[in-house]
Amino acid sequence: MEYIGITRETCSWLLTHHTALDALAEALLLNDLSVLSRTDLAVGPLRLSGSEDGRVLGIWNAEYLSNTGNECWGLFRLGGNLSVLQRPEIATQVIERFIYVISQRLQGLMLEGDFIHRAWVNGSHTCLAGRGNDARQFSICYYEVAPGYDGLASRAIIGIGPCHNFDELTSGIEPEKARVVALVARCNSLLEKQTRRPALEDDRFNSLRSAVTPLDVDQNFLGSITVNTDGLEKSRALNPYETIHWTYGDWIKSGVLNSAQRRALSVDVLHGHPVRIIGPAGSGKTLLMQLIALRYLNEYAASGLSIKVAYLVHNAAMAAAVIDRFKTLGGEEYLTGGKQELVVTTLSEYGRRRIEIDEKMIIDRDDQKTKEFQFEQVRIALRNVLRQHPKFMNESNLIKQVCEEEELFLAFAVLVMSEISSVIKGRGLNDERERYINAEVPFSRFHRILSQIERTVVFMCYEIYHGVIFEQFGMLDADDIALSLAGRLRTPVWDLKRRNEGFSLILVDEAQLFNENERRVFSLLSNNVSKHVPIALALDEAQEPFGLSVAGIGNLGISNIENEKLPSNHRSTREIIALSFFIIQRTTDLFGSEFPDFTDARDASVPSEHPLVSDPVLVRRNHDQKFGRFVVKTVQKLRSKNVRQIAVVCHAETYWNELLDSFKESQLPLHVIAQRGEKIAPDQPLVVLSRPAYIGGQEFDAVVLVGLEQGVMPPRVVDNLALAAALEQQVLRETYLSVSRARFRVVVVLNESAAPNSVLAAARDAGLISEGSVE
């Protein structure tokens, strides 16, 4: 690799992690990096990815990325003339010096005085090449550029050296000035690759892995978890209803927790570091979070010490379910307060109480119902803007498509709602219309792909939405509460109170459901006793229905978080697991080596020989039946095979009303899911109708997917490849979410003459799903 590009935040992070910095320098100097032009290396939060021409290696910490797609990059020459590799005897010190200079200068900070900084007439700067007697005999040269330089959106810096001769350095930096914009663009493109590349698994990078992801497990507690599995059938997974009445002690002593679950449970969140528990659907993340809570509550109760634990969920239905499960696990005494206290709440309800506002001032106490109401108002506002300003259709091809295609309109409305939330409100642009529309530096990835006309449409939607919610109804939405709560918790008053009123431990279940404004609050809830934020986040980002990009968790106040992976799926057949994994592998902004390969869960999956099991299948409507009636017939066939609980997930809004009417006419035992986390009788035969946004957290004997047809979902977008790719990513996540709900069967229903969308067509070609009928 000729150049190394590294983000400002990553440089700052490396300077506080000296072992990782040394290991990275060693990896850059001792390894053949050309392999990274075809693969990506993920080491904990650190990413190394090379351009396809083998010229630039981008390095970034995923926890500190913004959601704009434009980062502040520092670049320096690794190979070639005036490069680090020309002086291998001091190369480690030179890399360290470049990282320091990048960190300081991209923050607008001066270099230390003893580095002998000099400014030159051509705008370049020099300083000593490194610490130590040998490195101090050389200098490096760097040149800084500001936003607006040849269209550059963010600050950047490029460096060369080491070298003895100042004239050689200052003349050598001249050609680099012309390259910096193209190099930064190439680095930014590495963050948003259109196709996913394979993860690099190479022993030569083991020292870097060890330095970045050190082992930090409470071995005493790990040893206390039983691993004896005598009496259990290893040939099958435990049915969830067999364990529904188990207590905390039963789970610890049963031996059914696998090694990944035992390790995650043993991480010392209170005294060690924050932890993020990553796992696919059916891996037991929620159970594990509850066991973590009870682990500390029981330990502190045994020693007579005080502890206050927050367990945050997204909506009221989930909170009720979690409280019931804690009672079953034996934690009821902690729910009533005392020295060991467990608080199960939604963030919105906690915020309402903390900022002391009346219920009449909020849309709804339930976060999800509030956000549904928000979306409905944004949808109405968008429709009004497009109706009242038809000229926009003539000025923007995208707006014209949004007006004409209902599925694209709804998908665009979701993105507008997110933009209002995280950018216009989150960045305080409420009264900054011109700044939002004409900003040269994008505020988000969505903002970056919009023209000025399209940004105008978005801001007009916000103005109408704000006029209705804030001025007409006189209410606060979920973002208003989150932002107000964050403001209240950033005051000296809270600093004084938080030791007593803050939480010793914070557990966030299904963290992917919280938006950026809400995630900023997490780090402010702790009692600030420990140096780190004592938090555990459980998430499967693939279950975020809209796949919206948010800033890295490090940018949101939670530093040095470590990942714990749960690679096992305890729900589905091997065929369904393989299909789920194939789908999620095709996401470019989510899937990487940090996402667990759950296809290896041989002992945890439902055996393929089970009498209710059948391979995933694509079925097509008969020409003599209406589509809704055909879906009902498909469900009736499954019921005739003794498949008791069936979910029909409608991915295309255009089919929703027809499906709803057809199922109501059928007299089948229908349950329409209206919110995520809704309680469903586990032992009753039923048919569930749901949208993808509400299906998470559930499981069924069979899942029927509707609407995943070419040109329908994802909706077709012309002349805007970035938006088309974003919508495709959304549909991939929704499809994974639906497929992963199934235990025994997955059926995809297509309309007559319709073709499956690209991911299902690829799965069919790979032999993971076949066209046929329900057998």
TrEMBL record:
A Pfam family per the record: UvrD-helicase
Record-level GO BP terms: recombinational repair
GO molecular function, one term: DNA binding
Signal peptide: none
Key words, A-Z: ATP-binding, Helicase, Hydrolase, Nucleotide-binding
Domain called UvrD-like helicase ATP-binding: residue spans: 257-543
InterPro entries to which the protein is assigned, alphabetical: DNA_helicase_UvrD/REP, P-loop_NTPase, UvrD-like_ATP-bd
Protein name as catalogued: DNA 3'-5' helicase II
Annotated source species: Nitrospirillum amazonense
